[in-house]
Hints:
alpha/beta, eight-stranded mixed beta sheet
Amino acid sequence: VQDTNIDSKLNEIMKRETVNLLVLVPRELSSTNCSFSEEVFLGVLKQSNIQMESQLLKFHGKNTNFHLVDRDSFSYLLEEIKIQKSGLTSGQTAQIGKMSGANYIIVNSGNLNCSGDNKELIANQSSKLIKIESSITEAIDTSKLVLRYDDSKQDFIFHKGFINGRAVLYD
């Protein structure tokens, strides 16, 4: 794996081929000090994925060689494959690619930390860009997202973050 971020690697790849990219939501985030319901954790995972996809579209969406694969349209496939906590096997990666039409996949993992008053969540995530055909990791990147609890909405709202080398503010 070269020392490059995912955005730079995608730009390099798109010069020679079309990228049909699938971004997988982490199956779980490890947590050391949070006492939230599973529903809250699942919401954070989903929002984390949405923010990553938004950033990818913002910076690559105008390139005709870039397409995001709609993960929701084949969520049943991910359940059938039952992705292991230890990561994707090359066979699972190939199966996901074949069934989804993706030739690249981003796999995420990470951890979640909470402030003492449970009003702020910090999600640290590691992302791997994998070429499905060869199961080779092309790039690795990190993200850090900070969510704050909004009493009026009774939910966590993204406050700021750092995704694939770019600062992102949500306020």
